[in-house]
Design a protein that fits this description.
Helix content is about 70%, strand content about 0%. The chain is an all-alpha fold and about 150 residues long.
Length: about 150
């Protein structure tokens, strides 16, 4: 029985660590779910960047090969041709076209998990508790036997 008592404590320690690591460890289910949501965020960011890249390539090509586009951008900046006259109205500020941004930075978060040292400590404590409970149980059982044999 004494050997079984120690074996049960070791088995409890390993079982508690395995179950806790499976759910909350660094490669557990919770960390995997957090990583997959971060992966989805990165994928949507990459798609948005690809769309923005296509739009900017179109703008670049039109600036390279279309002189009318250059004239439009120059007029937005306040430039004009030699034969053009401008009337500036004070207080309106001018209608400037909003430029597209170069994209958005998406910083991935590291997944939250319980470190292995803490998991091993909790499992070891569970094994100690089982060992103490089994020892107390065995002590009470032996005491009852001695009382019965005494009477």
């Amino acid at each position: 029985m004494r050997f079984l008592k120690y074996l049960m404590a070791v088995w409890t320690t390993l079982a508690v660590y395995t179950i806790a690591a499976f759910f909350t460890g660094s490669t557990g289910i919770l960390a995997f779910k957090q990583l997959s949501t971060e992966r989805d965020k990165q994928r949507t960011n990459i798609e948005a960047l690809q769309n923005l890249n296509q739009e900017l390539e179109g703008t670049l090509n039109s600036l390279k090969y279309d002189p009318d586009t250059i004239l439009i951008y120059a007029r937005e900046l306040g430039y004009g041709g030699e034969d053009e006259n401008f009337v500036r109205i004070v207080g309106l500020g001018g209608a400037r076209k909003q430029r597209t941004t170069a994209g958005q930075i998406t910083v991935p978060r590291s997944p939250g998990y319980i470190p292995d040292k803490i998991l091993w400590f909790a499992a070891f404590c569970a094994g100690i508790v089982v060992l103490v409970l089994v020892t107390i149980s065995e002590f009470i059982r032996e005491r009852r036997k001695r009382r019965q044999n005494y009477y």
